[in-house]
Amino acid sequence: MKPIKFSREETKAIVDEIRDYFRNELDQDIGSIPAEMLMMFFADKMGAYFYNRGVYDAQALVRERMDNLTDDLFGLEQPTKHVR
Fold first, then answer.
1. Could you tell me if 15 and 36 are in contact, meaning their C-beta atoms sit under 8 angstroms apart?
2. CA angle, 7 as apex, 31 and 22 as ends, to 5°?
3. Euclidean distance between the first and the last CA atom of the chain, given in angstroms as a whole number
4. Which of 35, 36, 43, 54 stands 20 to 30 A from 61 (CA)?
5. What pLDDT is recorded for position 13?
């Protein structure tokens, strides 16, 4: 898997979320640099887990859509004397 990279705007948004979490939930102020380091730690060590979960969810959705498509295609069949 390629390393997860965020744009400057995404990084700022994530860092702000981390800082808000520390402030609101832990009553601690954390600087931008430590927050970005924490973000990079999670992206590096746990990003693959979140990525894989997204892949699994996408696979399930595609499988469901394919099942629906197959059902719809069978619904288009015309009656014949030929039995499959």
1. yes
2. 25
3. 44
4. 43
5. 98
